């Protein structure tokens, strides 16, 4: 089964990071979430109750990203995956990608970040 729901390019201004400058100044974080979900029932019924409401998922991600600062984006991603997997029983797997486009490190790049995949058990 290869059905997915995705929320790409969500952006949040927050103060996460291991460096003091990140906690003081803050920065924009880009978050992508992909949910592995069987969408056949929703495709037949046309009922939102037969799928995962991506507006609610957005609010879950926003609450975590704009919440208390964390040192590591790995921790943020883990919290997001756990929240989704515990709140939406239709989700079989959650992929979370967090990108910092302008971290306070020298060099030229499009961004740095992490991606995790967690099964819903």
TrEMBL record:
Key words, A-Z: Folate biosynthesis, Lyase
GO BP annotations, alphabetical order: folic acid biosynthetic process; tetrahydrofolate biosynthetic process
Catalytic activity: 7,8-dihydroneopterin = 7,8-dihydromonapterin; 7,8-dihydroneopterin = 6-hydroxymethyl-7,8-dihydropterin + glycolaldehyde
GO CC entries: cytoplasm
Pathway: Cofactor biosynthesis; tetrahydrofolate biosynthesis; 2-amino-4-hydroxy-6-hydroxymethyl-7,8-dihydropteridine diphosphate from 7,8-dihydroneopterin triphosphate: step 3/4
Gene name in the database record: folB
Protein family: Belongs to the DHNA family.
Taxonomic lineage of the native organism: Bacteria, Bacillati, Bacillota, Bacilli, Bacillales
Signal peptide (from-to): none
Keyword Membrane appears in the UniProt entry: no
Domain Dihydroneopterin aldolase/epimerase: 5-118
Lineage top rank: taxon: Bacteria
Stored SUPFAM superfamilies: Tetrahydrobiopterin biosynthesis enzymes-like
Entry function: Catalyzes the conversion of 7,8-dihydroneopterin to 6-hydroxymethyl-7,8-dihydropterin. Can also catalyze the epimerization of carbon 2' of dihydroneopterin to dihydromonapterin.
Protein name, UniProt field: 7,8-dihydroneopterin aldolase
């Amino acid at each position: 089964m290869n059905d997915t729901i995705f929320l790409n390019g969500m952006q949040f201004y927050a103060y996460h990071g291991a460096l003091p400058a990140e906690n003081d100044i803050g920065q924009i974080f880009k978050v992508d979430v992909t949910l592995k979900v069987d969408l056949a029932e929703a495709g037949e019924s046309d009922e939102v109750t037969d799928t995962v409401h991506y507006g609610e998922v957005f609010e879950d991600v926003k609450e975590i990203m704009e919440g208390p600062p964390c040192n590591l984006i790995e921790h943020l991603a883990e919290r997001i995956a756990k929240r989704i997997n515990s709140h939406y029983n239709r989700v079989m797997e959650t992929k979370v990608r967090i990108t910092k486009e302008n971290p306070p490190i020298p060099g030229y790049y499009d961004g740095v970040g992490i991606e995790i995949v967690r099964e819903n058990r």
